[in-house]
Design brief:
alpha/beta, Leucine Aminopeptidase, subunit E, domain 1, Aminopeptidase, 2 domains, seven-stranded mixed β-sheet, 34% helix
């Protein structure tokens, strides 16, 4: 899809469909809805006046109504897009509004869409960015293997802004970059396990890195043995498909000052998870192709980082394997030695993600990373705790969490911090090894998984994102297709960018 930014009055722009955002400006909770257009165009107000007065359109989030042949407006159709209550309007509603506009056009067979830049008190650069994120994410449908697939693609989307602005130019460009990065993640997560093996994941990552100028190294079995990654290898050994250890590096154009942060992004890349010898139930196992969504998030984030060019060095480590039952597979009761030297008793082979991450996190430290973040579809327990509205966040450092959460108003993603304190450590103690790979009870499963990972980061500031409940959309939304969500890409990018000032300003580091 081609996207354009034009500085032109929306009522004079010729297009098959012009989308106008609307909010409910009623303030009393018992008052009837008062739909109000986020536009100052008299012609558009006049064309929509009858519909707004009818009560048929209430401007709830994701609601749309189409006006054909609007009088006094050059567009063939006027689409009113609801964003919800004016009092609670945020950047995320505008992101969803952009997606809703696009998805409303797709089933109508339209190829061109225009969106009028909304009149809001929010920063114009951020508004432009989130609208284009929403547009880019909404364009994708995940039915690519259907032989009778209908082409409903939008060819061109134009954002019509009122007057020239450097901020809008920047936001428009960033929105396109972030949407493309998140869509890369989603496309990887959508692939079947017989298509996206660890080897193929390495090949596709290397191709992306070559495209955007990142350094990329892809290793396999020999490197795991050389590094003594016994935890990672134990998961890999039951599969006919070899593992892939992928290392991506972004170096800023200007070398950061000595002592600047080096950010490490570590992703779980299990391209298919049967559970191994502790095999999963058959019901729903087909969804386990998504068990590399953490790796996908890091790959997408690295693409965006390469194009946004923050002045901070970033290294990403992806640990990819299949978890399969086989005569050579690891077993409950085995003891394996991680790269760090810690010994691990295997209680359940379906707790494999934390094993590959343990070696990935330690390896990132040896590469010089001073701040770490990992993302993984790690536990079903996080869905029991938080439902499908928040990603579980764990950390050993409050300041690092503050850096992360400072970017959430812009990224629009929801996270909830869960405990990761030493009083939980007893639950991963083993009688015969340093630690075991599951908790001693079934309680607090996402916490004991985080405690396991914490063993391998030491004092390095670290965040763990358990995205298991949020990496897949079971139901389509007005602004997004069902399927892989690409969750965490935008938030990880904002977290990395939060270290830009610290990199450039030595005085800031000393505070």
């Amino acid at each position: 899809m081609d996207t354009k930014l034009l500085y032109q009055d929306p009522d004079t722009f010729i297009t098959p469909l012009l989308a106008i955002f609307s909010v409910d400006s009623a303030t009393d909770k018992d008052a009837p809805p008062a739909p109000t257009l986020l536009s100052t165009s008299a012609a558009i107000f006049k064309a929509a006046a009858q519909v707004l007065a009818s009560g048929e359109f209430k401007a709830t989030l994701g609601e749309t109504i189409l006006i054909h042949s609007p009088i006094g407006v050059a567009a063939e159709r006027l689409l009113l897009v609801g964003l919800g209550k004016l009092a609670s309007l945020s950047l995320d509603e505008l992101r969803k509004g952009g997606g809703t506009a696009l998805r409303a056009a797709k089933p109508r067979g339209l190829r061109q869409v225009a969106i009028a830049f909304p009149e809001t008190p929010l920063a114009s650069a951020s508004v432009a960015r989130v609208i284009m994120e929403g547009v880019g994410l909404a364009e994708i449908d995940y039915d690519i293997y259907k032989t009778d697939r209908k082409d409903l693609s939008i060819h061109t989307t134009t954002l019509l802004a009122p007057e020239k602005s450097v901020g809008i130019d920047t936001g428009f460009a960033e929105g396109n970059i972030l949407a493309a990065a998140q869509n890369l993640t989603r496309s990887l997560v959508n692939e079947p396990g017989n298509v996206l093996t660890p080897t193929v994941l390495g090949q596709r990552t290397a191709a992306m890195c070559a495209e955007v100028g990142l350094k990329c190294e892809v290793f396999s079995t020999e490197k795991l043995h050389e590094l003594k990654m016994g935890a990672f290898w134990s998961v890999s050994q039951g599969s006919a498909e070899p593992p892939a250890l992928i290392v991506m590096t972004y170096e800023p154009a200007v070398a950061p000052a000595e002592g600047s942060p080096v950010i490490g992004l570590v992703g779980k890349g299990i391209t298919f998870d049967t559970g191994g010898i502790s095999i999963k139930p058959a019901d729903g196992m087909e969804k386990m192709k998504y068990d590399m969504a953490g790796a996908g998030a890091m790959i997408g984030a690295m693409r965006a980082i390469a194009e946004l060019k923050p002045p901070v060095k970033v290294i990403s480590v992806i640990c990819s394997a299949e978890n399969m039952p086989d005569g050579k597979a690891f077993k409950p009761g085995d003891v394996v030695t991680a790269m760090s030297g810690k010994t691990i008793e295997i209680i359940n082979t379906d707790a494999e993600g934390r094993l590959v991450l343990s070696d990935g996190l330690h390896y990132a430290k040896t590469l010089g990373c001073t701040h770490l973040i990992d993302a993984a579809t790690l536990t079903g327990a996080v869905a029991i705790a938080l439902g499908k509205l928040n990603v579980g966040l764990f950390s050993n450092d409050d300041a690092t969490v503050e850096n992360f959460t400072s970017g959430l108003p812009l990224s629009g993603e929801k996270y909830w911090r869960l405990p990761c304190t030493e009083d939980y450590r007893d639950q991963i103690k083993s009688q015969i090894a340093d630690i075991q790979n599951t908790g001693t009870t079934r309680y607090g499963g996402s916490i004991t998984a985080a405690m396991f990972l914490k063993e391998f980061v030491g004092d390095t500031p670290w965040i763990h994102l358990d995205i298991a409940a949020m990496a897949w959309n079971d139901e389509a939304k007005p602004w997004l297709a069902s399927g892989p969500s690409g969750v965490a890409v935008r938030s990880i990018v904002e977290w990395v960018r939060s270290y830009a000032k610290e990199t450039l300003d030595p005085a800031h580091r000393a505070q």
